[in-house]
Amino acid sequence: MDYAAHYPAQLRSGPPATGEWWRWGPHDVRLHRLPAPDAPVVAILLHGAGGHGAMLAPYGRLAAGGAEVIAPDLPGYGDTRVGGPVTWSDWIACVADLVRAQTRPVVLIGASLGGMLAYEAAAAVGRTVRHVVATCLADPSDRRVRRAAARWPVLGEHGPALLAAAQVADGVRVPVRWLTRMTAMSADPALTALVCRDPRGGGGRVSLRFLRTWMTSRPTVAPEDFTVCPVTLAHPAADTWTPPELSVRFLRRIAAPTELVMLEGAGHLPVEQPGLDQLRDTLHRVLEGAR
């Protein structure tokens, strides 16, 4: 899928990401890498429910010069070859092990659902992670978050109970767009349409097991006890999918140092100015501090 045609020039400049395989448990995980062997930091970009590593890797160019960038296709998405059932806890464990495999300090950068994933992985690994940057901190234990994320309000409100009662259907895979408000992915209708028909991302399928385990989860470390590393919320100000106030509410509870940056004019997948430049400046500042 040609995302580059819908991305601004600063996300398209430079050599393309290289691809490699990383064996994790029963899964062959596809990693997209922007190599920088002399950089002092590794930045791991984490996609959400409508993306994959290849879609997100161009955002690594915003970190040019400051970090080597890795964008994984998390199990169930992208080109990763799945060898068994996948749960929300598996995503956390996968990212945590990817962090542990690095020999340099790590900054976790999470987009959409990947923001909470970055938080959870940092909590699991500890101080190898120097900073978490998230465009969204969607705590599924908050019903307001579930209602905002779900395509149908009733799913957000009663989904945990319904899915817990129907675990016999865990293996059923349904289109992602049936369950989430994928049409709010971007303020650019053409980019949103591309995401919605991408079989590796927003146009793919997700198991009810993954949805159930996300919807019924709580943060493994309460934000009041999270002291691993600083957390920066770089939230798109014009996001019509996940209201900024829900993520800000979670951010304000975090015990570690925090910062809020509102990306002006930017939608859920930020491609607009000046928000994109604000994201670039935020990442440069974070990576400099993580050295």
Automatic annotation (TrEMBL):
Origin: domain of life: Bacteria
Entry keyword annotation includes Hydrolase: yes
GO MF term list: hydrolase activity
Pfam family, one: Abhydrolase_6
InterPro entries: AB_hydrolase_1, AB_hydrolase_fold
SUPFAM superfamilies noted in UniProt: alpha/beta-Hydrolases
Residues in AB hydrolase-1 domain copies: 44-274
Keywords tagged on the record: Hydrolase
UniProt key word Amino-acid biosynthesis: no
Protein known as: Alpha/beta hydrolase
Source organism: Actinomycetospora rhizophila
